[in-house]
Amino acid sequence: MSGHGIGIEEARKLAQRVEHFVRETIIPYETDARWGAHGPSEEMVGDMRTHAREAGLMTPHILTDGNHLSQRETAIVLRASGLSPLGPVALNTAAPDEGNMFLLGKIANSELQARFLRPLVEGRARSAFFMTEPASENGAGSDPSMMMTSCARDGNHWVINGRKAFITGVEGAQVGIVMAQSGEGACMFLVDLPDPAIRVERVIDTIDETMPGGHAVVAIENLRVPADQMLGNSGEGFKYAQIRLAPARLSHCMRWHGACLRAQEIATAYANRRLAFGKPLVDHEGVGFMLADNLIDLKQAELITDWCAHTLDTGAPGTTESSMTKVAVSEALFRVADRCVQIMGGTGVSRDTIVELIFREVRAFRIYDGPSEVHRWSLAKKIKRDWQAAQPAAA
């Protein structure tokens, strides 16, 4: 998949269709009893995706010829999909599938794309990305170089052993991307799921609950993968991970920006209708100013995501830009969601609206795809490198 795109104006028209679909068709599913602590059920996902297909909006960021929208165009569409936490699931723009599709479109050969990518793009399958490992075993987390899962060549197969943690969506997934260490470095493999050699030990109870299948701890015991299912070359797995992670961080920003726009709408309506001390809440500066600060944070988040998207569209690696954007947007959106809860008082912490769930989801976003502190540390290292490089050579 390349990013030829459709043009910004056409992307806006597409986003309008996506927004209408989410508001009219998907938001009513937010009260569906089939949505549990570990995400919507497979049946519920199937129902929502049937509606998306009928509307001609399944996987809207990937064109029928396989080409991907540009990152700027994707930003516009994914924001609209995020107006409900269920929107990305219904439209097939959710993590981890969206990032996995992007990676396979860039790295997989035509045979692997036909076998593994096509069902994902068509919304007939879900996927899981097996990278993070249990903290209790000092495995890979924010520092992927600590990866302990191993892979060894055995004839025409690779044999993989290890444990993974916080693997999103593995229960119910049909496609897996597994990272492991060979003697040459990190490797990526494509696998069919389920596989008896990949055993879900438990699904973790977490603060968020929108991703089908939840987040699992997984044991991998003598998983045999045909050599031709290695993604790319042995030892280049971390390079491929960066290809995936930079735009994936941006996609998270886009989706949750849409969710926080929705929270702001709900909090604004509440503040205008709720009376206290003889006037609407919005007329009290303590409340009105919070809504104003939200407006500022939302606009700044929009601008920095558009800037980062433009950088990626130029062909730049975008690692620095995506780190900056991920920190700025995740923290700005958390402030927005937090203020919305505060404005709505008791109603804000109740499940009478979607606001409390958006608050919980955005809190997790400050950790997922790299905690803010790790991105700041990476940026600080770059600042030091750039300063050192700018110093005159010693005489």
UniProtKB/TrEMBL annotation:
Name any Gene Ontology BP term. fatty acid beta-oxidation using acyl-CoA dehydrogenase
Query: Gene3D superfamilies, from UniProt?
Result: Acyl-CoA dehydrogenase/oxidase, N-terminal domain, Butyryl-CoA Dehydrogenase, subunit A, domain 2, Butyryl-CoA Dehydrogenase, subunit A, domain 3
Q: Which cofactor does it need?
A: FAD
Annotated signal peptide? none
- Pfam families for this protein: Acyl-CoA_dh_1, Acyl-CoA_dh_M
Give the protein's recorded name: Acyl-CoA dehydrogenase
The record places domain Acyl-CoA dehydrogenase/oxidase C-terminal at 235-383
**Which family does the record assign?**
Belongs to the acyl-CoA dehydrogenase family.
InterPro entries reported in the protein's UniProt record: Acyl-CoA_dehydrogenase (IPR050741), Acyl-CoA_Oxase/DH_mid-dom (IPR006091), Acyl-CoA_Oxase/DH_mid-dom_sf (IPR046373), AcylCo_DH-like_C (IPR036250), AcylCo_DH/oxidase_C (IPR009075), AcylCoA_DH/ox_N_sf (IPR037069), AcylCoA_DH/oxidase_NM_dom_sf (IPR009100)
Q: Report the residue ranges that make up the Acyl-CoA oxidase/dehydrogenase middle domain in this protein.
A: 135-203
Reading the lineage from the top rank, the first entry is Bacteria
**Could you name the Gene Ontology cellular component terms for this entry?**
cytoplasm
Q: Name one GO molecular function term.
A: flavin adenine dinucleotide binding
Ordered alphabetically, the record's keywords are: FAD, Flavoprotein, Oxidoreductase
